[in-house]
User: What shape does this take?
Amino acid sequence: MLSEIRELGFSRVELSHGIPAYLVEGILRALAESFIQVGSVHNFCPLPAMINHAAPNLFQPSSRRKLERRSWLRYSLQTLEFASRTGATHVVMHSGSLSFRYRSPVSILKDSIPSKKQQQIKAMHRLQKRSRKIIPRVRSLYEELLPYAKESNLILGIENREGLLELPLDSDMTAFLSKIDDANLAYWHDTGHAEIKHRLGRLDPLSHLESLSGRLAGFHLHDVNEAGRDHQPVGTGTVDFRQLARFIRPEHLLVVELSPRLTPEHVSDSRTSLLDLLS
Assistant: This one.
């Protein structure tokens, strides 16, 4: 796996939330041989023993159930320990979600009919009201996790998500980070997720990046095609990478995050497109 990535021109990788424990030995051996480096690890990595598929939301810090929240902390700590062993500097985190037993506001928020504007405003108020109740659970778990991140010199990157119910809400991301004013907690920007929200009229990606530029740690870089499918080759969809490039700094980690259905040529072309943008 790592040899193929190296052959495509990458000297550093992100280890994803789909890596089973049986790959760990080979990964550590490859790192010991110094032919590739790990920049970031995506929680949960490696996968919990009972899971054999990518499951970044297997346990959520927003859950009502204390056992699930403790499981999130346990396996997040396992990820931090593994990240430290690999020499990674960043861990990408998901932060849970909201749930509604009745009348979820998602369908209204995805409806672009102008006459439903007032309904959409009310739906957003419902989201924000629910978030204010749930987000303290999420914040308290990050506060528990941060001492371990500091000890391992790891930055936790809170990723913006494509789901309208996922936390923190985009409008609350700045406030969430401000309430945990810690250098080891940062923002991680996913270009495809932001574009999906942009198409729904729920986010201005560039304004969002502007407001969070002081806490920005890295990027998942991928495009979104006309059909709305993300994780597409860079430069083939509607993400404005040229405008986005002005927010990229030398200290940021850049991860090309493409669909496994794409070809090695798509990966190589994406790398070339990004290098052209940043040169």
Notes: The first strand starts at residue 12 and ends at 15.
